[in-house]
Structures are given as structure tokens and as C-alpha cells.
């Protein structure tokens, strides 16, 4: 599953969403232990604790990430606390305020957070199967048996998105709708489901949403929807706060840059040896800030207000 380049970004004049223009690229420091900290210690809480933030993609988010949090605790010798975010915006606000130390973001959420001043450095991206490269699919879905056969048919319909700061549940869908000649603000009735699994559920029911978008891992769990289109998006990053002390940052970089599930199990994290964790984690591969320039390009073309600093 190689990251596929999107079609040439052209025709910017017709791609206006009527929203504010995006800012320039993020200024992630990439340097562990930056002196510009939100607290005297550089930690979100204290030197004995790491706060782990996650984009709330589904009802199982915390459970899915528990083995990884256990592994980070072993790597660093610190207590790892799960940061519960009600939505994407709340996680962005927490990152900007320096209230998370380590996090699993979506690509769009990472760009939005750093554009708004969050001091974050990407380490790697999770892949879910052997042989994959970082990246996953944003899928356009309809109820099973629907007469809707293409994105062009979404015009005039009630369409489920995930969250205004979701990469695969809003930014890429908006771009693809615009390519199809559909303004996602005026030519459809947008419905924000909040989580990927809820978007899939609502589309499957076919009442509140006649069509929609979600990431492939959640779509695959339902037999009530059909995929009519898909686009590969950059893999979601594992990031650390650039304000952390050098020794802690280096442990995170060394331990999370390129590992497999077998490495985590061998380290004694028995909770990783389950079908549930294997369904969401196989390995990590290194990524850097420049890897997310594709998202910044689409931000500029769609003029999505979430991109602005």
C-alpha cells in the first residue's frame, strides 16, 4: 500500500469553500528538549508522568492504544496517563496548551495543531499489516444496495463527515467533492458524526445520512455500507512534545521509530498479544514533518479554516 500522489492540484479558483485561508507550513522544531516550554519541567503534568493523547476515532480508542501506552511506560520508566479528548478540537487545544506529552494524531490534526503553536515532533506512523507503508484510506460510503454509485451522486444528499479536523473524515473528502464539482458547504447537507464508527453507523442506517466518509479500518467492520470510492492519505503520526527533556525524547524516538508488534510483546507487554491489538497495530515506520506537506497543499487548495494558525 504505497502512498499514492493525488491528481494535480489545479483549478484553485473553483476550490473555494468560503472559509479562511490556510496558514503556511508548520514549524515543528524536530529538536528534543526545546527551551521554549509550557512549564518549567517541560512535562504536561510532572517529571514522573507522560500524558498520552489520541484522536477519538471510535468507542474502542483507549482500549486499542493501551498496549502502546504500556510499552511507552516501560521505555521511559514513567506513568502513562490516557488523555480523553471529547473531539478533535479538544485534542488540538490540549496540544497547543502543552497538556499532552505523547500523542497519536491524524495528519490533518497534526498540521492544525502545529499551525496553531503546538510544539510537536513526529516520530513515526503506525502501519497495520506486514508490507505496508504509512498511509490508510479515506473511503466514500453509501448504504448497502443504495442507488448512489459515485461521489458525483452525493449532490443534494445528507452526507456524513467525521469531524472538521479529520484527515480522512473531512479534509480529503472535501477535496474529492470539490473535484467532483460539489461544494461541501452548499451542495450537500453536511452531518458531523464525531467519530469514524459513528459515521459508518449513520450511513448504514440510511436515515440521518444518505452517504458519507470514514477511514477504512472502521468501514471494514460493517456489512451495512458499500465503498464507492477511496483515496490514500498520509499515515497518522505518533508525536512527542518538543518541550520534553532530551533524555526522555530520545527514549521515545529510539523506542517508537521502527518497531513491530513482536518487539512490543518481546518486551513483556502481554496485552499486545491479542487479536484486538493486532487489528490496529503491526509496526511503525519513521516519518517527519515534510511528510505532511501533501496535507498542507490540500489545505491551501480547499482554504479549510481548520488549517489556519
UniProtKB/TrEMBL annotation:
Cite the entry's keywords alphabetically.
Answer: Signal
Q: Show the Gene3D superfamilies listed in the entry.
A: Periplasmic binding protein-like II
Q: Keyword Ligase, does the record have it?
A: no
Q: Which residues form the signal peptide?
A: 1-28
Q: Which domain of life is it from?
A: Bacteria
Q: Which PANTHER family match?
A: PHOSPHONATES-BINDING PERIPLASMIC PROTEIN
Q: Which family is annotated?
A: Belongs to the phosphate/phosphite/phosphonate binding protein family.
Protein name stated in the entry: Phosphate/phosphite/phosphonate ABC transporter substrate-binding protein
Organism, scientific name: Microbacterium algeriense
Amino acid at each position: 500500500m504505497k502512498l499514492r500522489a493525488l491528481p494535480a492540484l489545479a483549478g484553485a479558483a473553483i476550490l473555494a469553500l468560503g472559509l479562511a485561508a490556510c496558514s503556511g507550513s508548520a514549524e515543528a522544531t524536530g529538536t528534543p528538549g526545546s527551551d521554549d516550554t509550557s512549564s518549567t519541567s517541560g512535562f504536561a503534568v510532572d517529571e514522573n508522568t507522560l500524558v498520552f493523547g489520541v484522536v477519538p476515532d471510535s468507542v474502542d480508542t483507549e482500549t486499542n492504544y493501551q498496549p502502546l501506552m504500556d510499552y511507552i511506560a516501560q521505555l521511559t520508566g514513567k506513568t502513562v496517563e490516557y488523555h480523553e479528548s471529547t473531539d478533535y478540537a479538544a485534542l488540538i487545544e490540549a496540544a497547543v496548551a502543552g497538556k499532552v506529552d505523547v500523542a497519536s494524531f491524524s495528519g490533518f490534526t497534526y498540521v492544525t495543531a502545529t499551525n496553531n503553536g503546538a510544539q510537536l515532533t513526529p516520530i513515526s506512523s503506525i502501519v497495520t499489516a506486514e508490507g505496508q507503508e504509512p498511509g490508510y484510506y479515506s473511503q466514500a460510503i453509501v448504504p448497502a444496495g443504495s442507488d448512489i454509485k459515485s461521489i458525483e451522486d452525493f449532490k443534494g444528499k445528507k452526507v456524513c463527515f467525521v469531524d472538521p479536523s479529520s484527515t480522512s473524515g473531512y479534509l480529503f473528502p472535501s477535496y474529492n467533492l470539490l473535484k467532483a464539482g460539489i461544494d461541501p458547504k452548499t451542495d450537500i447537507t453536511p452531518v458531523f458524526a464525531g467519530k469514524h464508527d459513528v459515521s459508518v453507523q449513520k450511513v448504514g442506517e440510511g436515515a440521518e445520512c444518505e452517504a458519507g466518509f470514514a477511514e477504512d479500518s472502521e468501514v471494514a467492520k460493517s456489512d451495512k455500507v458499500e465503498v464507492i470510492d477511496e483515496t490514500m492519505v498520509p499515515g497518522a503520526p505518533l508525536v512527542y512534545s518538543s518541550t520534553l527533556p532530551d533524555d526522555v525524547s530520545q527514549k521515545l524516538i529510539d523506542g517508537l521509530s521502527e518497531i513491530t508488534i513482536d518487539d512490543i510483546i518481546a518486551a513483556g507487554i502481554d496485552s499486545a498479544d491479542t487479536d484486538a491489538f493486532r487489528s490496529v497495530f503491526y509496526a511503525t515506520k519513521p516519518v517527519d514533518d515534510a511528510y505532511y506537506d501533501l496535507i498542507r497543499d490540500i489545505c491551501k487548495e480547499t482554504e479549510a479554516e481548520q488549517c489556519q494558525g
